[in-house]
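Risk mitigation, structural track. In case the binding assays with coenzyme A fail to produce interpretable data, a predicted complex structure has been prepared as a fallback.
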Amino acid sequence: MREPADFRVVPADTPERWEGVLHIRQRVFAEEQSLVDLGITDADDPASLTLVGLDANRPVSTGRLTPAQSGRAAYLSWIATLPEYRGRGYGSSVVEQLVAAADAQGYQELQLAAQAHAVSLYMRFGFARLGQPYVVRGISHQAMYRIHPPEVRSRFTRR
Ligand SMILES: CC(C)(COP(=O)(O)OP(=O)(O)OC[C@H]1O[C@@H](n2cnc3c(N)ncnc32)[C@H](O)[C@@H]1OP(=O)(O)O)[C@@H](O)C(=O)NCCC(=O)NCCS
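Fallback model:
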């Protein structure tokens, strides 16, 4: 078994890393989940921070942080790990670093549309449920949000 040191999370800031991100999106959201029809990129990609997790330099996990127009909030999206690499903490590492980047950039609120199976993952990073679950193409989703800093979060967040 390889050491955990073989895994690292980096920005998708080279053509090779970006190709890796697109491969993961294609495998997970298009082929596995049939969630996307119109492609695996969108208009928010250029203004977003996209991270990619590398296992022995192979791109296996990804996620994206996108500023909202208000400037105070941001969104997490396109979070995925290749099926054969799940359950090793890679998705959590990507989310942890996206959240750290959002905090460092001063966003007061983070939002995301979680798939139901991933709700507990996001709760570990301070996210709370917003409203009722809803279904998109047969997959149960839950809107979630996270207030920063933590002392403000504890006043607003009900679990
Ligand atoms: C959600 C997702 C990104 C998590 O990635 P990951 O690399 O498996 O993340 P982690 O290893 O940090 O574990 C996440 C959770 O999945 C559980 N898990 C363990 N083995 C798993 C497996 N083989 N397959 C799926 N989940 C597994 C972990 O126990 C953990 O559960 P917990 O949060 O209740 O502790 C990944 O399952 C995925 O790509 N899912 C499909 C796309 C998706 O749902 N994206 C999120 C949209 S909000």
